[in-house]
Structures are given as structure tokens and as C-alpha cells.
Amino acid sequence: MNRTTLSLIAGVTALAAVTGFAAVSSPDTGTTDEPARAAAHLPVERTSLLCPQPSTSDLAETTYTSFTPPTEGAEKEGKAELRPATRKPGKAVLKPKDPGKPAAGEASGAEAPALIGTAEGRFAPGWTVQQTTEVVAGTGRGLQGVTCTAADTEFWFPGTSTAADRTDYVHLTNPDDSAAVVDIELYGKDGALKTTVGEGITVQPHSAEPVLLSTLTDEKQTDVTVHVVVRSGRVGAAVQALDDQLGGDWLPASADPSGTLVLPGIPKDATAVRLVAFTPRDADVDLKLRLASPTGEITPAGNETLHVKGGMTTAVDLGDITRGEAGSLLLTAPDGSVPVVAAVRVLRGEGENQESAFIPATRPVGTRATAVENTAKGTTLSVTAPEGTAEIKVTASPGTEGGTPASKTYTVKSGTTQIIEAPVPSGAKGSYALTIESESDAPVYASRTLSTTTGGVPFFTVQPLPDDRGTVAVPEANEDLSVLQE
């Protein structure tokens, strides 16, 4: 086999590995004089998801829900499983069902482990797993929800804290056969915080490691940005932020540093919103703040811009910025020249009956995104289109215990945030999945809120809905070079 053939195969193999083990095959060829054809979008063949340990509270009740949306062109065979993140074999918390059918499982108390999930073949494209925990009392009481995520090598978490009234953990989960080595960097209002044991943290194979932020530094600061960098291997990472008085929730990683950020779906009855931003650059930046409301973009009075110093965490209280209408926060750096990460902490309720949740900057829905564990009551779907009027299709799956799917299409006007009255499967029993598909070129951003009231406290949790990366672009070759000989 000659060097040309070897180079092509090596390149395709690398592409498949980076993009989620996409199916790659040699297409039929035409003449060698044709220009290169557009990339084909093929379903991924394998997906891995990591779920952090839900809680250390004996009062915790956790529900897991799994769903794979039907995907055209996906393989006919396959399998999926969720197993405890431990080197010792453990019992799976649920058994995923066929694509198009959600499945649910439960776990109680502090013994529920972190999970490592793998899906292959027809189960892989767009596989989504939600972990939702209700804690009725104690630090962090409330509804804590997180979408299980893929492993990576770098994460940003603006909105954490080392203050005395906060108990924040960075949960690290290693899905691989070799140990991962991780550095955790902390940045406060004056720059990098001195850490004692934040470097060279070892996460053993097939295991999870919760790291309490307050043990990494002696400095007590209200607003901290966490940067997780993996030296070797890869991990899943999420922050569990628990407050003594204001409940708690999971803080997912912010979208990659960018000059333009969207934080979608601030609830209409938010009583307080605190924005935390950070730029890893040495340069300062004045971010332009806008709120995409149901009627259009609004510049918050008194908070038109936010000055963020290079390498320092900046925070501002925006109060009840939504004023009874759901909205999404839009952040823009001049000319997009300085990349930023950001998140907001949202409070609902009053006095002692307050609960908190977090919304980080997120990626757009892209081709498709899915939210699971929805019910007819207590589910709010928020969608914003900051760059142009967008068309979306929303499909409700059957329930975990039966029902008939339903779909609706919607138009989201440019610069607005809309609360979508999502379809409900007829005869639904149990919870169901909602899948959003973009049907226009204008990007849309979305989040889903789950809410309930317990003991007079408005429990809630918000999950951003980025693209599920269920397909991968694979360039088509002009020639099938696999037939070349030495």
C-alpha cells in the first residue's frame, strides 16, 4: 500500500475518533476531474455519557431518564447501558429502550453512584440522559438537575464560590482504562487564587472524584471561575453548587470562550439574577448586555455594559431583570475581539422560601437537541433567536409508560425569547422527551425548566439544550483510493 493510501486512511480514522466514532465508508466515485463534494452528515456509531454522583444527602431521591431520538440512516442494531463509575461491577440503574422510547430508573439516598454510559449503533445518535434529584431539606435543598455529558479535556465554570455559605464541588468522572490527571485553577475578583492541592489531581480509571472547592484555597470569595484542565486522559466535569439558605443546583460548563454569548431561558418569575463573567485574556473588555424578551431586545437600565478585567472574575446583580416575562441574556464583546465565559445564578421565591438554579452560556441547538424527563405540568421550554427569525419543530415522544408521539412547528421572531407551549403525547403515562429541530438557517438557543413546589418553596432546575451532536460531517472523496496498490 503506498503513502497516499496510508495518509487517507489515517486521516479518516482520526476524524472518526474525534467526532464520536462516525460511520465512514467509501462513496461511489465519478470522474477524477470533479471538484470535492460537500461533506455528508452521518449518524455517529458510538456515544459516551458521564453522570456525576447525585448527592451526599440521605434525603435525596434521584430519577434517571434515557432517550435516543429516531435518526434517519442509523444502524439497525446496537446497545446502550449505564453502569456505576467503579472498577467493581455494579447494577445498572436503568435499561435504555429502543430509539423513540424513553426509559426511567430511580435511586435513593447518598449511595447513588456516578455513572458511565455507552451507546452503540442505533442507540448512539443523539443519546440523552437526564439526572434529576430532589432534596427536601438541608444544604442545597431543592431540585437539582443535570444533563449527563461527554468526556473532554477542558471546562470553564463561572459562577462557583468558596464563600462560607456555599458548598461547591467539582465532580470529575473518568470513563477510561487509564488514570486521568487534572488541574483545577480558580480565579476570583483579583485574579488567580492561590491553591494548595489543585494541581495534578489523579482520577482513577472508571471512577469519580468529587473535589470540594473550599479545600483548594484559603480565600473565601463569593464569585469564582473554575478552569478544569486535563493534563492526560479525559474526564467529565460538572459543578454542584449548594447554598445553606438558597438551595442549590448543578452548574454545567459554559460554552467555550467567545466574543458573543447567549444565556437562554431566565424564568419570568425570577426574583434575582446574578451574572458572573470571566475572560482568560490579559485584556479588559466592556461587554454589551441585552435581554431578549418576548417582544424584542431590551437594554437593561443601569446595566448597559459590564467591564470585565483580564484574568479576573466579575459579577453584577441584575435584580428582577425579566420583570414578569421570560428572557435570555445576550453578551457581546466589541468586534468579538475578547473571548469570555459566563453564567447566571437565578433565584425564585421570597425570604426563606427561595431556591436557586444556574444558566451558563450555551451552544446553539444546531440540528437537534433533546430534553428528557418532561411532564405536562412543571415543564417550560424557552427558545431564543438572537440573529434572525427562526423555524423550529418540537416533537414529544411517548411517555416512559406509554402514549402517542406529537409534533408542532413554531416561529421564533428575531431578537425574542418565546415560551413554547410544547406538544404533549396523547395518553402519556410517565415522563417524556422533547426534541427540538432547527428548520431554518437562523441559530436558535434553548433551555428547559423543571419546577415543582415543596413545602412552599419553588423548587426548580434549568438545563440548556445544545446540539446533541448525533451526526458528524464526513467529507466525500472524489476517488476510492482503497483500491490503490503498492
Summarize the structure.
By secondary structure, the chain is mainly β.
Describe the overall structure:
The protein starts with a helix and ends in a 10-residue tail after the last strand. Residues 1-36 have low confidence and may be disordered. 3% of the residues lie in helices and 48% in strands. A hairpin with a 6-residue loop joins β25 (341-348) and β26 (355-360). Strands 9, 11, 12, 13 and 15 form a 5-stranded antiparallel beta sheet that branches. Strands 18, 20, 21, 22 and 24 form a 5-stranded antiparallel beta sheet that branches. Strands 5-3-7-8 form a 4-stranded antiparallel beta sheet, with no helix packed on it. With 486 residues, the protein is mostly beta strands.
